[in-house]
Amino acid sequence: MIRMRALLAAWVICILMIACKKDSDPAPNNPNNGGNGNDTTENTDPNELLAASLDSFLQSNSLQLVRYYSDSAIDYDETDTIVKSETDLWAYVSPWLKDDTYVFGTDGNITINQNDVKIPSDSSATLTRPYTVVSDDEGVKLTFLTNEYEPLDYRLIQFSDTAVTVQAVWNGKTVKSDYKVVQ
Q: How confident is the model at residue 57 (pLDDT cuts 50, 70, 90)?
């Protein structure tokens, strides 16, 4: 009788172990979870999906700055003695930026083609700088470049198959930049 109970108990334990056993096969690599195989669910976070879509768009296109502006009139240059209320800020764009084209690599770097007008501190035909595209609670953040090619955080406003609009805080003012796709 004891032997029968021990056999029954062992059988129940085996059944429970089999029923509770974790699947030894890892989940397939899902790019939405870093490809680590820990999640088989599809990513439904709209900001993460938008960030991934923007990153893919950037890596597939070359861009050029075509417009620099503010939605509300601002005095952009507070270092001069003239107080201006302007929305069109193109006159303040550094000359070397106006003909630059940007190529976003899959390695997280931007190749800046300086073209004819080059930044005075570096006359190289091309420059390379890092960039990132991440999602957060506020939307999509693009760490891109200032007029001196230093990192600056931008927020994505919109993008289409031909253009991107981002905004940043520069000298305490919210400014927007429009980029178009170029060949």
A: very high
Question: Which H helix or E strand runs over 135?
Answer: strand 132-136
Domain 46-182, CATH: 2.40.128.540
In this prediction, residue 43 carries a pLDDT of 67
Half-sphere exposure of 26 (CA within 13 A, CB side): 7
Name, in order, each residue with C-beta under 8 angstroms of 150's C-beta and a sequence gap of 6 or more.
Answer: none
Q: For the chain, what are the domain ranges?
A: 2-33, 46-182
Q: Which two tokens stand for residue 118?
A: 């080059």
Strand pairing category for 109-113 and 132-136: unpaired
Which pair of tokens denotes residue 150?
């230093």
Residues in the chain, total: 183
Token pair 């003239």 is at which residue?
Answer: 82
For tokens 């570096």, the residue is 122
